[in-house]
Amino acid sequence: QVQLVESGGGLVQAGGSLRLSCKASGSIFSINAMGWYRQAPGKQRELVARINSDGSTNYADSVKGRFTISRDNAKNTVFLQMNSLKPEDTAVYYCNIVPRPPYVNWGQGTQVTVSS
User: Fold this and answer.
1) Cα–Cα distance for residue pair 37/45, rounded to 1 Å
2) In this structure, are residues 61 and 1 in contact, taking their beta carbons and an 8 Å threshold?
3) Contact 97, 29 (CB under 8 A)
């Protein structure tokens, strides 16, 4: 069973930075694209950043130029560096495989709150 544990969220003022981490169990990590998703209250979960097994990355327009995704395959960990945070970035952030297979559950997520 694949398990994902996110950490690093918190409360930050607008313009601040946070670095999220996601530790994945299992051997699937290095052969799959991984991504950071977020879900704001009353909204659907959305993919904001993706990193492929070759290290190439893609970002949602809303975070492009502010967020950076990276991965450490040796440690089965994916990171999200978030700079110039805005109140609209407030959400619970999750990591998972992209696209998410039905047999991989969501982790508990990590709350990011950006105050204005």
Assistant:
1) 6
2) no
3) no
3 bridge partner residues = none
β-pairing, 4-7 with 34-39? unpaired
Could you report the per-residue pLDDT of 72-81, keeping only the tens digit for each?
988 889 999 9
43 within 8 A of 115, measured Cβ to Cβ: no
Q: Are 68 and 48 in contact (CB under 8 A)?
A: no
Amino acid at 9: G
Query: Please, what sign has the CA dihedral across residues 10, 4, 83, 87?
Result: negative
What are the backbone dihedrals phi and psi of residue 31, each rounded to the nearest 5 degrees, phi first? Answer: -105, 5
How many whole angstroms separate alpha carbon 13 and alpha carbon 31?
36
For residue 30, pLDDT over 90 is answered with no
**Contact status, residue 112 vs residue 18, Cβ threshold 8 Å:** yes
Residue 105 has pLDDT above 80, yes or no: yes
Backbone angles phi, psi at 87, to 5 degrees: -55, -30
Query: Position 17: which residue type?
Result: S
Amino acid letter for position 55: G
